[in-house]
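Example record

One chain of 670 residues, shown exactly as stored in the release files.
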Amino acid sequence: MTHIKDDTAGPEKARRLYVYNGGFLTQKRVRRILDLAGYDISLGRPGPDDLVGVWGNSPTAHRGLGVAERRAAKVVRVEDAFLRSLFPGRSGSPPLGLLIDHKGVHFDPSRPSDLEELLAAHPLDDTALLNRARGAIARMAEAHLSKYTGFDPATPVPDPGYVLVIDQTEGDASVTACGGDRNRFLEMLFVAQEEHPRAQILIKTHPETEQGYRKGYFSEADCNDRVRLFTEAVSPWRLMEGAIAVYTVSSGLGFEAILAGHKPRTFGQPFYAGWGLTSDEFPVQRRQRKLTRAQLFAATMELYPTWYDPHRDQLCDLSTTLEALAAETRAWRADRHGWVASGMRLWKRAALQQVFGQHTPVIFEDDPAKARAHDRPWMVWAGKANVGHESAVRVEDGFLRSRGLGAELVPPLSLVSDDLGIYYDPSRPSRLERLIQSRRTLRPDQVARAEALVRALTRKGLSKYNLGGVIPDLPDGPRVLVVGQVEDDASIRTGAGEIATNAALLDAARAAHPDATLIYKPHPDVEAGLRDGAFEARTVADIVTDAADITALLEQVGTVWTMTSLTGFEALLRGVDVVTTGAPFYAGWGLTTDRGAVPPRRREDISLMGLVHATLIDYPRYFDPVTGQPCPVEVVVERLATGTLPRASLANRLLSKLQGILASRAHLWR
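Predicted structure tokens for this chain:
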């Protein structure tokens, strides 16, 4: 992240910022970002070395401007950043970043702003910066991110071939700053019709107009047989795909049109006009530089804003904020209609409610007929899916789950939901399979993110359960780790194939490696006496570990044998050879030696980073135990590494102890 620096004022100097707008005092997120950026919000009368903060060109800005003029203080203009929140600020959504400008306002062309000076004078030639910009543009398109993200990307848009005319809210400061009014909007609409006499004209209303907060410049009175208002909350990226031309006065959607590949026609003087990427009706003469799309984005989104990380409560770069918004948006889009859930044990329900019920509470109903009767999406715990659950979304624990076992009733930090099948059942395609196939080719930014994630997991010794433990002294020479599993586990029942017991797996490994040191690692649930799968392994294995740290073991072996265990995937992350005798989700992609019957549909070679991206970034949903909000995978990695985690409730801890005593009746609580 780069802060604007000049010799008159700047966030590095931690100076007093006098404000005369109540929003600076009442909006906690705004205050927090300014505080982190080095501003001490104050009331009273500033001195000549102090700063006066005003909110853009808002109706209250004149108060601060008047005080600044009388007291010879410098003015700092503050605005929401270009990626803001799920919904407009008037709904109460806090911003994820601010634009803090010491020279002007980015949307006011009467004088240059810090942003304009960046666009005009910054070299914008750093390869890493421009690569980050290209990656961020692609990520925004992929996740359908915009300034406000509270829309469903699946909402249909009109058939392609329309001309897009963008409405704004009446009296918007960016409109009035360039002398715009309703007549300007009517002129724009007239020109759009004249220049495209045979096309449908689509007037896109502003989100605040759609939600009833503010009027727009257009109404139904401006429509005719080929001009209509479009009020649906849709993805701007999908809307731009079908447009043959884009017209705007000064809307931020015009900037997003550039990112989507358009050259919008502007009838105002927005910050993105004048750089060779727009066709301008009212040019700003001092803007003569020609920029690429990546350069415009780099200055506007990477260098200019002050971004905030809501999970770590600190300032951050664009990519961190972008992923936080993507996680929050993904959860809202999936959960906004509410869920009805079946097959969820009582001890799991609080965690499921936290993850899936933040916007509309989850209804728990085990009877399939009653569950289907609810007018909302339906989910079922994958291991409990049965006849009658065919149309339900399968839910399971994620691959970075917790510190502690699910069988010990420790709540999860990640969950997966699968609308096609479930990742451990190879009998039919799963959503994870589709995601893996889609990651055959990765963008450079995706490769970098996956590689950074692998480094974090391996360096911090993280796995699914993160139980710790020590490993025994191991002899020199070839070492083969055989991973035991719970023999009645769903992944064994559905995907193990001919070798479906721990004893048979160990025998097969010994036959293949007669001279190697064979190390057998029982599953933690089996070691704890909570699940089936125990047997006398010492007659075949050279070493049977006792509560050993699986990640430390993986660092000491050259080969792993497994039926379907996730440990095989964790071994791949550490460069260990993996032999599968079943058909786990990571088998069949050219990364493992597969002795089982892998489905023929898995015949593509996928890179390890492609597998990692699909499995750990795309597929699960993650929950931050500190903020109680959806989060990116990197936050959960940090929580697991630092131990900042939820504990099982007292009732769950007591039940866990009781189930250890009554292990033979584990089906009662699982």
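Notes: The first strand starts at residue 16 and ends at 19.
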